[in-house]
Amino acid sequence: MNNLNFSQRGVSLLEILIAMALSIIIILAMLRAFITTGKVTAESSLGAKVDSSMTLGFIAADRILQGMGFGITNTNAGYGTNFQVLDSEGNTVNLDSTSKKAAGKFLVWKVSDTDCQALQSHSNGLYFYGKNTGYSCSSLAKPADTLAKELLIQVESTLSSSGISNNTNNIGEINIQVQEISGCLPFGVKNSTSSGGKYQVLLTAKTYAASSATSAKTISNVTCLVNFK
Question: What is the pTM of this model?
Answer without folding.
Answer: 0.82
